[in-house]
Write a structure and sequence with these properties.
Layout lengths: L1 H8 L7 E2 H8 L3 H13 L3 E6 L2 E9 L1 H9 L5 H10 L2 H32 L19
Antiparallel strand pairs: 1-3, 2-3
Helix pairs in contact: 2-3
């Protein structure tokens, strides 16, 4: 569910999160949070454990499967985005969609730049080992 996905987005597979922090973030009671976490645990998406420093505190970690689901989920709920867009006046909707298009293009360029940088570090295409860059003369 969208609620469970919001929970997964607040968790990590390295640093544990306290159950109380999750409940506070989502604005639910501890009993509601416990029920939601139980479902995620039964599904194999999280693990729960007591904090060794304070046995009263319950910590939560994502499993590899939980991380995979979290990472594969779209950042926005498509149905919610549709509802918001349909509630706008046509000219507002056009401006919003144009802005999203600009963001998507900028994100693609940034990812391409990052990928070229990583390839360069790994000795891939465009790296220093390929001999494709210009050598500057030494200054005296």
């Amino acid at each position: 569910t969208e609620h469970q996905l919001r929970l997964l987005r607040q968790m990590d597979d390295v640093d544990p999160v306290m159950v109380g922090e999750l409940a506070e973030y989502l604005g639910v009671t501890m009993s509601t949070m416990s029920l939601n976490l139980k479902r995620l645990e039964v599904a194999g998406l999280i693990t729960r454990s007591r904090d060794p420093a304070d046995r009263r505190v319950m910590n939560v970690l994502l499993t590899a499967e939980g991380r995979a689901i979290r990472d594969a989920a779209p950042p926005l709920d498509p149905a919610r985005v549709d509802a918001v867009l349909m509630s706008m006046r046509p000219e507002e909707r056009d401006r919003a969609l144009n802005g999203l298009s600009i963001l998507a293009e900028a994100t693609s360029r940034l990812e391409a730049d990052h990928n070229r940088y990583v390839e360069g570090l790994a000795g891939g295409p465009g790296s220093a080992s390929s001999g494709s860059e210009e050598v500057l003369p030494e200054s005296s």
